[in-house]
Amino acid sequence: MYRHMRTSLDIPEPLLRRARAAAKRRRTTLRAVLLEGLRHALDGESHGPAGYTLADESFGEGGVHEGVSITEWERLRELAYDGRGG
Predict the structure, then answer these.
(1) Measured between alpha carbons, how far is 86 from 81 in angstroms, rounded to an integer?
(2) Nearest Cα to 2, choosing from 33, 28, 35, 34?
(3) More reliable by pLDDT, 27 or 84
(4) What is the pLDDT of residue 28?
(5) Neighbour-count burial of 19, counting CB atoms closer than 10 A to its CB (0-12 exposed, 13-18 middle, 19+ buried)
(6) Nearest Cα residue to 37 out of 62, 56, 52, 16
(7) pTM given for the model
(8) Residues contacting residue 44 through CB under 8 Å, at least 6 positions apart
(9) Would the N or C end of the chain have less CB density within 10 A of its end CB?
(10) Backbone angles phi, psi at 3, to 5 degrees
């Protein structure tokens, strides 16, 4: 059995308007829309974006560019942004 607790939230006006409009379109309550959104956010919390897997781009050993120490932050930044306008 679920227990319910009342709480107060400060929701930015534009977001609240969108939520109310969604509730009206779906012919449901604002509460139902907010609970659905909260459940959706929490269900996906540990899984990250659906269907996304970070490609393994590792190579060689050590993971640092040859001739560069892991502690040389300025040089690492230069290499990371080389040719990217950074």
Answers:
(1) 5
(2) 35
(3) 27
(4) 96
(5) middle
(6) 16
(7) 0.49
(8) 50
(9) N
(10) -100, 145
Alpha helices (H) along 27-72: 30-43
Please give the residue that has the higher pLDDT: either 73 or 14. 14
| Count of all residues that appear for the chain in the document | 86
Residue identified by tokens 């040859």 is: 66
> Helix 13-26 crosses helix 30-43 at what angle (to 10 degrees)?
110
The residue type of 83 is: G
Closest residue by Cα to residue 31 from 13, 16, 12, 14: 16
Average pLDDT of span 32-39:
94
Q: For residue 35, give both structure tokens.
A: 């609970």
If you search the block for the tokens 């459940």, which residue do you land on?
Answer: 39
C-alpha to C-alpha distance for 86 and 79, rounded to whole angstroms: 10
- Here the tokens at position 86 are 């950074």
